[in-house]
Specification:
The protein is α+β, with helices and mostly antiparallel strands and 254 residues long. The chain has seven helices and six strands, in the order ββαααββββαααα. It has one domain. The chain starts with 16 loop residues before the first strand and ends in a 7-residue tail after the last helix.
């Protein structure tokens, strides 16, 4: 079961906190229990803690409340139960779980990295959509279930990265949107015009840095796809619409 720990559907884009799909625990590394007392979503000092928790709670809710998530939960407990009982004839359930997790997040070899070019609001990436062949659990090419890929390029047409569209990306985009929605609510509630402008600018820069980070785009490609197809210029709106897909995620896998 140890190797399954590495197949996390809920990616840890930071070390501040993470959700463990196998035991359904949320771990907050950055703060202590007492740090979450007397928080106020309209207070800048509180919103970082609240938004971090909201992000991980969104993963937890997606895992426990959707048909897709419950299907994964069933596989997790079936695999764990038979592993602990040493029931060799039922060990195939462990392999079944591993296959499901891989199919929802895709192996790293589906991602191709070319140039590490960080984008921003004024240097946005170009894109193109392609389709590729996935490999079966036996390593054989399977042309019956092609994978949708997005290729990203710099403004000078330098290739940056090619990433697959995955369930894992939809889940992460949903969590990112819920996280930043809390921050936006806080930003709009600030009374001091200077503080409001500074925090809004800081939030915008943080958001664009996240969206155009080559190392993280595999987790938010769903938002890029939504924005490009619908020609959204508002990044938060792209995440909001992508989040609607994540919130209604009912299929066991793509």
């Amino acid at each position: 079961m140890a190797s399954i720990h590495s197949q996390n559907l809920f990616p840890n884009t930071t070390t501040n906190a993470y959700y463990n799909q196998l035991n359904q625990f949320i771990t907050i590394n950055k703060y202590e229990k007492q740090d979450f007392k007397n928080l106020n979503v309209l207070n800048v000092n509180s919103v970082e803690k609240i938004s971090l928790l909201i992000h991980e709670l969104t993963h937890w809710i997606d895992h426990l409340s959707t048909y897709w998530g419950q299907d994964i939960l069933s596989s997790i407990y079936n695999a764990s139960n038979n592993y602990l009982q040493g029931n060799v004839s039922e060990f195939w359930r462990i392999k079944l779980l591993d296959n499901k997790l891989k199919n929802n997040s895709f192996q790293s070899y589906y991602t191709e990295k070319f140039h590490n070019i960080q984008g921003n609001k004024y240097n946005r990436w170009k894109y193109s959509l392609t389709a590729g062949i996935r490999f079966t659990d036996e390593g054989k090419p399977d042309e019956t279930k092609p994978i949708l890929f997005t290729r990203f390029f710099s403004g000078n047409d330098e290739p940056i990265i090619r990433v697959p569209m995955s369930v894992s990306s939809i889940l992460e985009v949903n969590a990112i949107y819920q996280e930043y929605k809390v921050k936006v609510i806080c930003s709009k509630s600030l009374d001091d015009p200077f503080e409001k402008a500074m925090y809004s600018r800081e939030l915008e820069e943080e958001f664009y840095k996240l969206v155009y980070n080559p190392d993280l785009v595999v987790y938010n490609v769903a938002a890029h796809l939504t924005a490009n197809i619908n020609k959204y210029s508002d990044v938060l709106m792209s995440f909001e619409q992508s989040s609607r897909i994540g919130s209604s995620l009912q299929a066991p896998c793509l």
